[in-house]
Amino acid sequence: MTYLKTALLAATAIAAAAPAMAEWAPSRPIEFVVASGAGGGTDNFARTIQATLNREGIIDNSVVVLNKGGGSGAEAFLYAMQNEGNAHKLIFGTNNAYLLPHVAQMAYSMENLDPVAALALDEFLIWVKADAPYQTATEFVEAAKAEPGSVTFGGSQSKDTDETLVSLIEQTTGADFKYVPFNGGGEVGVQLAGGHIDAHVNNPNEALGQWQSGAIRPLCVFSPERMAESEPIHDGKGWQDIPTCQESGIDIASYRMPRTVWMPAGVDEEAKAFYTDALRQVAESDAWQEYLDKTSQTGVFLSGDELTQFITDNETSTVEVFAAEGWTSQ
Amino acid sequence: MGNFDLLMQGFGVAITPMHLLLMVAGVLMGLVVGVLPGLGAPNGVSLLIPLTFSLDPTSAIILLSSMYWGALFGGSTTSILFNIPGEPSSVATTFDGYPMARSGESTRALTLAFMSAGIGALTGVIVITLLAGWASNFALRFGAPEYFAVYFLAFAAFIGMGSAAPMKTLVALTTGLLLSTVGMDTITGSVRLTFGYSELLSGISFLVVVIGLFGIGELLSTVQEGLRFRGVASRIDLRDVLKTIAELPRYWATSARSALIGIWMGITPGGPTAASFMSYGIARSASRKGKAFGTGRPEGIIAPETADHSAGSCAMLPMLALGVPSSATAAVMMGGLMIWGLTPGPMLFATQPDFVWGLIASMYVSNLIGVVLVLATVPMFAALLRIPFAVIGPMIVAICFVGAYTVSNSTFDLWLVLLFGLVGYLFSKLDYPIAPLVLAMVLGHKAENAFHQSMVLSDGSLGIFFANPLVSTIMAVGIALLVVPKVLAFGSRFRRRIPVE
Predict the structure, then answer these.
(1) Size of interface A-B (CB pairs under 8 A)
(2) Confidence (pLDDT) at A257
(3) One domain, residues A140 and A106
(4) Structural domains in chain A (count)
(5) Distance from the CA of B59 to the CA of which of A155, A273, B127, B287 falls in 20 to 30 A?
(6) Is residue A13 part of a domain?
(7) Cross-chain CB nearest to B324 (options A47, A54, A190)
(8) Do residues B340 and A294 make contact, with C-beta atoms less than 8 angstroms apart?
């Protein structure tokens, strides 16, 4: 066994050395490990990249998508830990990769993951039922202040991005909401349309259908500037007509969720460079722009130091919220 | 334009040579993934999604949904022949399907299953056609307390008339509830009962447990009884198929009731698995005479199969109209929908009539194709039982392990299959019922979540379960199903003074 391994390694080494320091290229099918169940936002993110890579001929190797969404996505990151140094596995997630270990005892840590790139920022908005009494975000917050605990916020999972944002609104404005966790954005959306909760902070893509039909309406968006121009969606209003939360009186400049790609720790720099380049080509393609438009996300391309800086900033500010809520697991 | 005109327009979209070809291909592929346990419809459909990028959305959804129907049909095959459910929703089919096949009537069992499945699916599609607008509004009225009431009703319907000893039922039920709590909890975000095993973080997969309990457990019993495969060689004759079809009208009441249960559970996203259990439980409560359920009663096959398929097809409605998938497969298809650039929601019916009605029309056609294809293969599948145990036994073991591995590509699950194989063997030796355990695993976590959410909403008051007419009615029916049979049994025992055996 060992002998065979050595022989194989030697053979590979010779084969690799032959084209004199040629760039690294995948030699086997690549596995895309998705840190969510099939059908969610992270899943669509990974599958769009998979389709673009193959259709644009950026990577010829076949790509297999594997959903490991258990434990809010922890399953995928644990899988990365078990596959240290494996250059044929990419992990797709959000900021859950570095936030999960703060709220729950996890067997993996950031040491086990190597960030490759962030390709999009998903926006968060405050949505209320169309016939709700509040017209602006300020009115909404005032209502929650007037009767603490009477306004119900629904969200996806607990101690995850949605509840963090709701807590952040509470900490910033001094209002008091009741937070009810559900299984996913879709479920939360229906609960609002049915009037069982008062508000949610779903992503544009999750809420589009209900807004189109006039069941719900947005109050404000947690981005530094207004969203990109779009066709009118309902009642003559499009994404660009939604005020930012800061201009409507909630002092949170930006709260966005990055869509991130990771590799197991211990992978060669060349392999990482190969994937960074491939993902950059995806980010520059028309198909990617189309995906961003359809899902109303903001396109970015962060890699290397920029990405590390982004992660550090995002982690620090979020962990402050966790600490104030007493969620940190250590 | 009325729904009927739209449907006709949909048939125009759906019936083209290309689409018919896609339906046949989809159903055949679905049959294959359905027959293999573990590799269920959700996996099959997600594997196909990248292939659909080159198709237009209507062709793509026709291919994917046909595969779903095929998988639903295929899932019943292994349930009946080997006691290994191919799909979670065909677990309830094993209760009577397997005994019937074992007594030499495998052709009859399979035909009953496939025909009722077809009837269920068609009823479901007709309901979608008629109620497209109304049904999605009804589903909106379901908040957390209503969901809990529905799950409560499913438990009550199944357990109220349980024939096993009450204490043993309780043991099985609580074991199932305990198993369903393993892993990360949605409501609190805390990790429970994993004992430091990171493999347990995502919980114990229901399918893995079922494969162990039924597949391996059954095999162990067979081995103990002297390596004889208990499936008696059955006559394989197309006439048997026709004879079984002729006896179907006799069970119209069961079919109609089960279809209704399925429709309801499909629209108010309870899901096909819950529907099949509930329907089986109610069929058992409703039957008065004849041999006991669990020994090969035709109604015991008709009820879960009809409900499973009508729920499966009705689940498409909340997915399209609300963006809420009520089954795992619908969730995957919804992901596909978004990739193709369609936004599920109430406006989809208005903005994409060709897509929506093309899909609905294709559901009529592909389910008919499914029934024909699957009936044609009945003799072939039934012939599997003639193979000697020495050959088929190892094959079943292999299928079980491959199936369990494919659920989440984890070797840890293989140990779980072995463990639950032993549990299943002990359960059947000691006369503990397995069904309550399985039901608790399917619905336990959902019921717990809904209960917890209700408690958060009401600040801990149980009054929320009787706060409006809808939730009160469902709760009242549930309580009645749980209590009335016991009271009646007690009453009649008292009157006749017949001692308990």
Answers:
(1) 145
(2) 94
(3) no
(4) 2
(5) B127
(6) no
(7) A190
(8) no
Indicate whether A15 belongs to any domain. no
CATH number reported for the structural domain that contains residue A215 in this entry: 3.40.190.10
Give B450 to chain A, closest Cα distance, Å. Answer: 9
Q: Which of B202, B341, B347 sits opposite A71 (nearest CB)?
A: B202
Strand-pair category, A256-264 with A89-93: antiparallel
- Confidence (pLDDT) at B159: 73
Give pLDDT, residue A279: 96
Q: Does residue B94 sit within a domain? A: yes
Rounded-to-integer distance, Cα A298 and Cα A254, Å: 13
Q: Can you read off the two tokens belonging to residue B477?
A: 């029916």
Q: How many helices (H) and strands (E) in chain A? A: 11, 11
Give the model confidence (pLDDT) of B298-351 as tens digits: 999 999 999 999 998 888 887 787 776 666 777 778 777 877 777 777 678 777
Contact yes or no for B339 and A209 at CB 8 A: no
Number of domains making up chain B: 1
* Contact state of A193 with B140 under an 8 Å Cβ cutoff: yes
Last residue of a domain, one of A188, A211, A241: A241
Reported as type and span, the H/E element at residue A182 is: strand A178-182
Strand partners, A127: A200, A218
The CA distances from residue B181 to B146, B185, B440, B457, in Å, are: 21, 7, 10, 22
Residues from chain A that touch B198, judged by Cβ atoms under 8 A, are: 74, 78, 107
> By the CB < 8 Å criterion, does B331 face chain A?
yes
- Contact call for B347 and A212, based on CB within 8 A: yes
A24, part of any domain: no
C-alpha to C-alpha distance for A252 and A243, rounded to whole angstroms: 13
Q: How far apart are CA B124 and CA B112, in angstroms?
A: 18
Tokens 């018919």, located at residue: B20
Q: What is the pLDDT of residue B229?
A: 52
Kindly list the residues from chain A whose CB atom is less than 8 angstroms away from the CB atom of residue B449: 182-183
User: From CA A281, how far away is CA B249, in angstroms rounded?
Assistant: 62
CA angle A102, A107, A113 (to 5 degrees): 75
- Judging by DSSP bridges, how do beta strands A152-156 and A199-200 pair with one another? parallel
Of the candidates B392, B465, B18, the one whose C-alpha atom is nearest the C-alpha of residue B218 is B392
Tell me: the pLDDT tens digits for B348-404? 877 788 898 999 999 999 999 999 988 887 777 777 767 777 787 888 888 788 878
For residue B355, what are its two tokens? 């897509």
Distances in Å between the Cα of B178 and the Cα atoms of A57, A170, B175, B408, B412 are 49, 36, 5, 21, 19
Q: List pLDDT tens digits, range A17-60.
A: 444 345 788 999 999 999 987 767 888 899 889 989 988 889 98
Q: Which residues of B touch A50 (CB under 8 A)?
A: 50
Look over chain B and give the mean of its residue pLDDT values, rounded to a whole number. Answer: 83
3-class SS at A1? Answer: coil
The whole-model pTM stands at: 0.82
Residues B225-278 have pLDDT tens digits of 765 555 445 555 678 888 888 888 999 999 999 999 999 888 776 778 888 988
Selected residue of A294, A322, A327, A329 to mutate for chain B interface (largest B Cβ count, 10 A)? A294
Task: Decide which of B143 and A261 is more confident.
Answer: A261
Distance from CA of B323 to the nearest CA of A (A): 6
DSSP-based three-state secondary structure for B443: helix
Residues A219 and A132 occupy one common structural domain: yes
Predicted ipTM?
Answer: 0.83
